[in-house]
Amino acid sequence: MTALELSRLQFAVVTVYHYLFVPLSISLSALTAGLQTAWWLRRRSGLGDARFGRATMLVGKLLMATFAVGVVTGLVQEFQFGLSWSAFAQYYGDVFGPTLAVEGMLAFFLEATFLGLWWFGRDRLRPLVHLATIWVVALGTLISAYVILAANAFMQHPVGVALDPVTGRARLADFGALLTNEVVVASFPHTIAGAFMAGGALLLAIGVWRRWRSPAAREEGAVLTSGVSDGPSLTRDEAPTWRLLARVGAWTTLLGGVAVALTGDVLGKVMTEVQPMKMAAAEALYETTSHAPFSVFAVPLPGHAQPTSLDIPWLLSFLATGDPTATVQGIDDLAARYVAQFGPGDYTPWIPVAYWTFRLMIGLGVLATAVAAWVLWRTRRGRDLEPAGRGWLALGDRWLVRFLPVIPALPAAAATLGWLFTETARQPWLVFGLFRTADGVSPTLTPAELGLSLAGFALVYGVLAVVWVRLVLHVSRADLVDLHPDPVEVPDDEDAPVLEPSY
Amino acid sequence: MDLAMIWFALVVACWVLFAVLEGFDFGVGMLAGVLGRDEHERAAAVRTVGPVWDGNEVWLVAAIGVTFAAFPAWYAALLPGLYLPLVGLLLALAARGVALEFRGKVDSAAWRLRADVVLGLSSLCSAAGIGAVLALATTGLALGPGGAVPGVGVARSLAPLVSAPALVGALVGVLAALLSGAAFLGLRTTGPVRVRARRVAIATAGVVAVVVVVLAAVAAPVAAPVAALAVVAGVGAARRREGLAFGAASLAALGGVVAAFAAHAPVVLPSTLDPAFSLTVAGAAASPGALQVISVAGVLVLPGVVAYQAFSYWVFRERVASGREVAA
Fold first, then answer.
1. DSSP for B218-272?
2. Residue B265, phi-psi category: left (phi > 0), alpha (psi -120 to 50), beta (remainder)
3. Which member of A101, A499, A503 has the closest CB to residue B294?
4. Following DSSP, what letter does each residue of A186-227 receive, concatenated?
5. How far is CA A73 from CA A18, A69, A197, A254, B121, in A?
6. Dist. CA A73–CA B133, nearest whole Å
7. Cα end-to-end distance, chain B, whole Å
8. For residue A458, which of A129, A200, A274, B145 sits 20 to 30 Å off, Cα-Cα?
9. Residue A102 Cα distances to A78, A108, A146, B306, angstroms
10. Cα–Cα separations (whole angstroms), residue A190 to A148, A202, A286, B101
11. DSSP A444
């Protein structure tokens, strides 16, 4: 493989991996903040309710584990643009660099410092200050997401940039325009909604598993007991918290799913406008068509002779433009137009990847949303899932609990596919219309160096993934902890801590 | 003084803060498993950096991000020039961060043992790596035209590691981190860990002073004051003035980083092939528009960053006792 191919593969691997943890960090920090706020409000109004404090601690532990991996893999991202894409950094650093610098100064410090304050400051900070720290973390993740998506939006649809006629280098002309790029305005809500689906699905799976599926819950049926030795116990005391977790997770996934669909529609229309080739590739629409149908699936792809397919008439024209009769540009016409505009070359992205990633992204997102709706409906008004029951509905519950471990993977896979789609279907461009991916790679980097670094990332990231999964499983199996346990009497002996200030 | 020079100073300031703050993190990581004789002591040692290490490490993000924004050509030459050493450093930092965060999250001796081993080794590699990278970044790379380092195979970016600057840099990085970490543990713990940390600080201070004196005599006379600061740190530890010891160790790290960057200023990245290929502050700087944007952001944001990081150190100012079970 060439240095270019290896650089692209490595960027894809480390970025997709990093992005498995980002949506969880975004949503779990906000969910922790929300749960702790509910706990604080209830405590203040004298309604003793342990559920919210316990759920806060559990989600907070998941957040800590996830955030750690997100931080260390995010650090790599900060270096990537120089390590293997130094020609891009040299030509576009003036525009791209400030976004990364602003993200670091504005958001990364906030998240890192305040998450430490939140986790270790439980018994040191006043409750309201402690609550504020987790909201700051959540705010930091959102700022981070916005600025990074603005940087990505620049690659999709370059605005706020001027080209130096002599050196060919880009110069930052308007940072405000960069931050209000119509692509980031559309992709930010879409991305955040997807992030909430990811966190929601994780909580849903853990809550349902502990409340209705774990060995203790299954063994005892509807009877709740304590002191079951094998597997996590399900006590009368804890059951309401697991139920709360399942329903909060399901609501989050459901609302996230609806928001993803609505914002995805807006993003699709913006994309059709700024990168018509990407959306034509998503549909494998070779010929410019009016009243274009939406292809649900086709084998082989549309454009080939006689595919077996399912089409929905007029829907593509409607989705792309809002008008079911509108004309949608096809791949062949666009390719010819780009040749005329940019000179000879291949301007067509990899169509099967674009077509299938786009469809699978939507399909998995819909599936996760449907699962969440099912859980909410089956547990409405205090009802229980009945995986051991009879009838069609119980069969649905049985399938749900059987496939619980897959559920958190659905939104994660959908997000991954979405990124693979939007990044591969931008090719051959790194910055659309201005700078080609092939021109961005570090000029003297050798394939041997890339092979070694790729092996290193694969090894370390692989181990991190295994350890993260083990920790998440451990947290999911552990007993619940109260947010503020009752103060324990400190025995009056010489082992008692002497707390003196260091400075 | 123009905006580009101010940003060069700010890049150096980010590296200084990273070296000083993350320096003691690395030292604590290396020492926690050695100075802590049982789980309570080890947990207490790790806990001293638990709330703050991540914020400290962000100064590396700031240094790199600010370099990218203010000096794109510097960023684009340095990173691919030191490709494999930097990838190795990033992997060590990844292992370290996860070991620190995951250590106390599972109540199992085997889990914690593995975390301690990974923490110790990755902290050692990180300190050595940062030392080597900073030494190479300030003494120069084989930059050709266009800021690219030519070469064949993995040796292109690995070969610079087997050079005098890299080896000395790695050694100094590890020693400085040990001194700083020992002084910090002396300041932040109680009981036996505190006593042992002071002893390590005294011994390391002596070694650092000797190494720096040799270095000053052979290559860089500008480093001489750093040796004096190391001696002050050692004397402070011996007299149980732990604040003085830590302060002097921090100033020594500051002095070392500033001296390294100042040696060739306004050259930001010297070329060892031909001085004509060296990158200068003016030659590597971004456009005035980009510098203005990050200047506004920096003025608005960085004072706040320093303030809330200081607040975090204030909240966790109490010494960490090892006489009780320390919650994760």
1. HT-GGGHHHHHHHHHHHHHHHTT-HHHHHHHHHHHHHHHHHHHHHTTTTEEE-BS
2. beta
3. A101
4. HHHHHHHHHHHHHHHHHHHHHHHIIIIISHHHHHHTT---S-
5. 5, 6, 22, 29, 19
6. 20
7. 49
8. A200
9. 12, 9, 11, 15
10. 14, 19, 27, 30
11. T
User: What is the tens place of the pLDDT at every residue in A157-210?
Assistant: 999 999 988 888 899 999 999 999 999 999 999 999 999 999 999 999 999 999
What ipTM goes with this model?
A: 0.92
Q: What is the pTM of this model?
A: 0.92
10 Å CB burial of residue B151 (0-12, 13-18, 19+) is buried
Question: Which residue has 């998450």 as its token pair?
Answer: A115
How buried is residue B221: exposed, middle or buried, by Cβ count under 10 Å (0-12/13-18/19+)? Answer: exposed
CB A208 within 8 A of CB A401: yes
- By CB atoms closer than 10 A (0-12, 13-18, 19+), residue A188 is buried
Cβ–Cβ contact A469 with B under 8 A: no
Which pairing describes strands B279-280 and B267-269: parallel, antiparallel, or unpaired?
Answer: antiparallel
Residue B276 CB neighbours (<10 A) = 8
Spatial CA neighbour of B293 closest among B76, B68, B50: B68
Residues in chain A: 503
DSSP state string for B185-206: HHHHB-HHHHHHHHHHHHHHHH
With vertex at residue A472, the alpha carbon angle to CA A454 and CA A56, rounded to the nearest 5 degrees, is: 130
| Structure-block tokens of residue B73 | 């050509």
Within 8 A of A81 by CB-CB distance, chain B residues are 68, 75
Q: Is A76 on the interface with B (CB under 8 A)?
A: yes
Cβ contacts from A onto B, under 8 A:
275
Strand pairing category for A435-436 and B267-269: unpaired
Is-contact B154 A448, C-beta < 8 A? yes
- Cβ within 8 Å of residue B203, ≥6 positions away: none
* Chain B interface disruption, residue of A444, A466, A481, most B CBs within 10 A: A444
Phi and psi dihedrals of A221, rounded to 5?
60, -130
Q: How is residue B19 written in tokens?
A: 């070296």
Q: Does A101 touch chain B (CB under 8 A)?
A: yes
One-letter amino acid of B146: G
**Given pLDDT bands bounded at 50, 70 and 90, which one contains residue A359?**
very high
Please tell me the distance in Å from A110's CA to the nearest CA on chain B: 7
B243 CA: distance to closest CA in chain A (Å): 7
Q: Which amino acid is at A451?
A: G
Is residue A288 within 8 A of residue A237, CB to CB? The reply is: no
Amino acid A222: pLDDT: 45
Q: Provide CB contacts within 8 A for B38, sequence distance 6+.
A: none
Q: How far apart are CA A204 and CA A38, in angstroms?
A: 18
d(CA B151, CA B131): 23
Query: Considering only alpha carbons, which residue of chain B is nearest residue A89?
Result: B76
pLDDT tens digits, B251-289:
999 999 999 999 888 999 999 999 999 999 998 999 988
The H or E element that residue A478 is part of is: none
Half-sphere exposure of A39 (CA within 13 A, CB side): 23
Can you tell me the distance from the alpha carbon of B286 to that of A16, in angstroms, rounded to the nearest whole number? 30
Phi-psi region of A391 (alpha: psi -120 to 50; beta: other; left: phi over 0): left
